[in-house]
Write a structure and sequence with these properties.
The protein has 318 residues and is mainly α. It contains 10 helices and no strands.
């Protein structure tokens, strides 16, 4: 009787059942290649939707109190821009950010999936603490590889276009001029602030997203999440990150502007802002940034998840 292959001893049955149940309950991992492609697509679509709020945020941050303020607030900034340049004026500098958003999101999600695949437990679950560490790694990677040079060009381009006599004729002309006059280092201004900002940004966002996903899925790691729920989770994660690191965003923007030479270092920039403008200056542009980031993170996560679903059907990596 014991040689019958269909017979299972009662003493071994729990173990066999557990072994059989394990594969069914294990999370399906996302291949880093899929994450890079899906992230790039999501990043490109998102920035085309949200750029006007990014433009307003940058303009308000560059409008220092040390000089007579040019704008009275968000509405006035939008009004002056539209009156002077038309609605297209709100999209000045889009090219520099678009060229950066695609590789930025690609690197972010690619690195996050690569790290998270290594740090998940036996069932494939990623706890919130490890999600934070993976997000931190993804943020630092995107800062060094993409964000710092692209954001430096973007800020200089927007700042230049708002001056009386703009000297940059377009994105590539601007890049050539910056490299010609300042060298490659001219595209890496504010690297420390950018690494701190992006690292903390993604650490906070992925920590919140991982926590909310684990809470929503409960004991079923493969439970599907409705895109609207993903969007709500993303918007909340974005809001938390805004209040967590807007001061770093302000410092980064100042360090990358055309008047960056006024500051000796990231710390010197922070000290001078505090000395001449007070603590409120560290939260300039918070409202437009809050609106943009919530929408940004929600859109990116929704598109990313949906593109991954499509890729899983046409690109078999198991």
């Amino acid at each position: 009787m014991s040689r019958n292959p269909t017979f299972v001893s009662p003493f071994h049955r729990p173990h066999c059942l557990a072994a059989a149940a394990a594969p069914a309950g294990k999370v399906k991992l996302t291949h880093p290649g899929k994450a890079i492609l899906a992230g790039g697509i999501a990043g490109g679509i998102e920035i085309c939707i949200t750029f006007p709020t990014e433009y307003v945020k940058t303009q308000l941050q560059l409008d220092e109190k040390a000089n007579p303020p040019r704008y009275k607030g968000i509405v006035d900034c939008v009004k002056q821009t539209v009156d002077g340049y038309g609605v297209r004026g709100l999209y000045r500098g889009l090219s520099s950010l678009l060229y950066g958003s695609i590789p930025k999101a690609a690197v972010r999600f690619g690195v996050f999936e690569f790290l998270s695949n290594k740090m998940r437990d036996e069932s494939g679950k990623l706890d919130s603490t490890r999600g934070l560490l993976c997000g931190l790694g993804a943020g630092v990677a995107e800062a060094v590889v993409v964000v710092c040079p692209m954001e430096t060009v973007k800020v200089k381009f927007i700042h230049d276009q708002s001056s009386a006599n703009p000297k940059y004729r377009g994105f590539f002309h601007g890049v050539r001029e910056i490299v010609r006059t300042e060298g490659l280092r001219g595209t890496y201004q504010g690297l420390t602030a950018t690494v701190l900002k992006q690292g903390s940004n993604q650490a906070i966002r992925f920590y919140v997203m991982t926590s909310l996903r684990n809470w929503y899925k409960g004991e079923d790691p493969n439970k599907a999440i409705n895109p609207l729920v993903t969007g709500a989770f993303g918007a909340f994660a974005g809001a938390v990150s805004v209040f967590g690191n807007t001061p770093l965003d302000v410092i980064k923007t100042r360090m990358q502007g055309l008047e960056a030479h006024k500051y000796k270092s990231t710390l010197d920039c922070a000290v001078k802002i505090m000395k001449h403008e007070g603590p409120k200056a560290f939260y300039k542009g918070t409202v437009p940034r809050l609106g943009r980031v919530c929408m940004d993170v929600a859109i990116v996560f929704i598109i990313y998840e949906e593109v991954v679903k499509v890729l899983n059907k046409v690109w078999k990596t198991d």
